[in-house]
Design brief:
The complex is a heterodimer of chains A (about 220) and B (about 375).
Chain A: H1 3-33, H2 39-51, H3 54-65, H4 70-79, H5 87-97, H6 99-111, H7 115-123, H8 128-139, H9 141-157, H10 160-166, H11 176-185, H12 189-215
Helix pairs in contact in A: 1-5, 1-6, 1-9, 1-11, 3-10, 5-10, 6-9, 7-8, 9-12, 11-12
Chain B: E1 2-8, E2 14-20, E3 25-29, H1 36-44, E4 53-57, E5 65-68, E6 73-74, E7 82-85, H2 97-102, H3 111-120, H4 136-149, E8 154-158, H5 166-182, E9 187-191, H6 194-200, E10 203-208, E11 211-216, H7 218-223, H8 228-233, E12 239-245, E13 255-261, E14 269-275, E15 284-290, E16 296-298, E17 308-319, E18 322-329, E19 337-342, H9 343-349, E20 356-360, E21 366-370
Classes of the chains: A mainly alpha (about 220), B alpha+beta (about 375).
């Protein structure tokens, strides 16, 4: 078991979920409640990481963020931030490719809240912000649990984008899935097996969470 | 006093004007899609239509003016002290009954206040149940308690009785009547049920395609609809066409003449003596209705009575204690009059389908309306 890789994977999963959660909640609620003509285009863009091969996403991120690019060079020059072959770059890539895993369940959860509940909260005198905290978020929590669980599980298992953007720098960008690949390359099947089982268990646990949260939907109590 | 004037173009068309004084229950009545709920939502500040024009106020103070398109005032729903009971109650499913109600109390109240409120609403002991653990009637009471906890200046009820069974509805009718004794604020009830409006409301507003066609006490609106569309909306069965002629040499004093004709020309006509209120032009095309309860029926013609029509009894539909009878005037066979007669009275008359009966239409039973130009 490569504990260093496990630590990087876990840190990446936690940081990705932590960054994506507020962004995902805001985006999902906006998509669920705001009629807008350009929404299908935005939704398609958000879903794109599900269909595109991870290496394609990784390739474009490498091109856009590498030091050869204007953006990459500017980031290094102005704030000394290198976004390829670094944990920060890996985190940014992870946030982007996990957008659909966080936004989709949250969007469905917000869309399932009847508009009359939101309006009832306003008529009760609750500001839009208090209505969100007191009514909408508690009712959307199964979507929130699902979003976090899916994002973390997907981050733990991501391979293509990680390899393209982060490479395999031990303690920095080498995650469990890269470590499994490295172990298989040197025919250390036993070590690869242990790490693979850990990832399988993590994915199973995440899915169990999603289904358990779905069963306990507060909106079904009607 | 709640004063409402609303005009809106576009998909949600509104052209409604009414007021409602403290302690009054006003019913907005109309078919589905007539704009009843939209009017209620506009009063509550929930109708998001940029083109909405008009004025909504609940008093004379500056903060009582909730909406004034001319002065650019448009208070948010949170700033209007409105108690709104939604059609399906819109209780927050993740909160208990008391949490639902407490959310509307500003400033926050102590437990004793809510205990008293729950007691008053017949909800004692149910404070800690979730909405899913309450019956339909209990949910409605919690929704009403939540609306009252807001200490509203206006109480709005959006079809509050549509989701409960008939016995519960009867109980809730009584509770609403009792509530009116204790809470003296304007109350506006939206309903499509004419009987409900008749039974509960002091006044009704007849709405059609967003437009308030007539406002008045139910008895007056139902007996004297302003025009043919109102007559149709309030479900008056005996609704006919004719032509009005004002008081002439052959008419009794104060009476004019109504020439009742069929829908198609040349199918005959009947001349009826009616009250001349001097409001209609000579020869005006009119719609008219008759109040069934003022009609008289006999097996013998009364030579002294005005407007006696020989009719054949086309059909008798027994409906329990009453029978629905269809009469066809001999002189105008294209028309028919529907009457609700008690089955006992029908037996006494010895009337059978196909037989001849004499219908007496007193002049005061006829209500004449100008044909509405659309």
């Amino acid at each position: 078991m490569d504990w260093q890789a496990a630590r990087v994977s876990l840190l990446l999963a936690v940081c990705t979920a932590a960054l994506l959660l507020p962004l995902g909640v805001w985006l999902a609620r906006w998509l669920a409640t705001t009629p807008w003509r350009g929404r299908p285009v935005l939704e398609a863009l958000l879903m794109l990481p599900l269909l595109l091969p991870p290496t394609v996403i990784g390739f474009y991120l490498l091109v856009m963020l590498g030091q050869g690019s204007a953006l990459g060079a500017w980031l290094v020059r102005s704030i000394n931030l290198r976004l390829v072959f670094s944990f920060e770059g890996l985190l940014l890539a992870s946030v982007l490719i996990n957008l659909p895993f966080m936004v989709q369940p949250l969007q469905r959860a917000f869309a399932a809240i009847p508009g009359s509940l939101r309006e009832a909260a306003w008529v009760c005198g609750l500001s839009a912000w208090r209505a969100f905290w007191k009514i909408e978020l508690p009712l959307a929590w199964p979507g929130l649990v699902a979003g976090v669980a899916l994002t973390m599980a997907h981050t733990l298992g991501e391979f293509g984008v990680v390899l393209m953007v982060g490479g395999s720098i031990a303690g920095e960008t080498k995650t469990l899935s890269i470590a499994i690949y490295d172990r298989v390359q040197v025919f250390d099947m036993a070590a690869a097996h242990v790490m693979a089982v850990v990832l399988v268990l993590c994915s199973l646990a995440a899915l169990a969470f999603v289904f358990a949260a779905d069963k306990a939907r507060p909106l079904q109590e009607r | 006093m709640l004063q409402v004037l609303l005009k809106n173009e576009g998909p949600i068309r509104l052209d409604a004007e009414f007021n409602c004084v403290r302690g009054e229950l006003l019913a907005l009545v109309g078919p589905s899609g007539s704009g009843k709920t939209s009017v209620l939502r506009a009063v509550a500040g929930l109708l998001k239509s940029p083109g909405l024009q008009g004025r909504v106020s609940v008093g004379n103070r500056a903060e009582d003016l909730w909406f004034d398109s001319v002065r650019g005032i448009r208070r948010a729903a949170q700033q209007r002290r409105v108690g709104l009971v939604f059609q399906h109650y819109a209780l927050f499913p993740h909160l208990t009954a008391i949490e639902n109600v407490a959310l509307a109390a500003h400033p926050p109240r102590d437990a004793a206040y809510f205990d008293t409120l729950f007691e008053r609403m017949g909800l004692a002991g149910l404070q800690h149940r979730r909405p899913s653990q309450l019956s339909g009637g209990q949910q409605q009471r919690v929704a009403l308690a939540r609306a009252l906890a807001r200490e509203p200046q206006v109480l709005l009820l959006d079809e509050p009785f549509s989701a409960v069974d008939a016995p519960t509805r009867q109980t809730l009718y009584h509770e609403l009547a009792a509530l009116r004794q204790s809470v003296a604020i304007p109350m506006v009830l939206v309903t499509h049920d004419l009987n409900e409006a008749r039974r509960l409301a002091d006044r009704v507003v007849i709405l059609d395609a967003g437009e308030s066609l007539q406002v008045g006490p139910p008895a007056r609106v139902f007996a004297s609809p302003r025009n043919a569309r109102v007559a149709e909306l309030v479900g008056i069965q005996n609704h006919f066409q004719g032509r009005f002629f004002s008081n002439g040499p052959g008419d009794a004093p104060g009476c004019g003449r109504l020439v009742w004709h069929g829908d198609e020309a040349g199918t005959g006509h009947i001349s009826l003596s009616v009250v001349d209120k001097k409001r209609l032009d000579q020869g005006a095309e009119v719609s008219w209705v008759v109040a069934g309860e003022l009609l008289d029926i006999s097996v013998q013609a009364d030579a002294q009575a005005l407007n006696t029509l020989a009719c054949s009894l086309r059909e008798v539909l027994p409906l329990g204690e009453i029978s629905l009878c269809t009469l066809v005037p001999a002189q105008l066979p294209s028309q028919c009059i529907t009457l609700n007669l008690s089955s006992a009275a029908l037996r006494q008359l010895g009337a059978v389908p196909g037989g001849v009966l004499y219908l007496h239409i007193p002049p005061e039973a006829v209500h004449i309306m100008p044909v509405r130009q659309t």
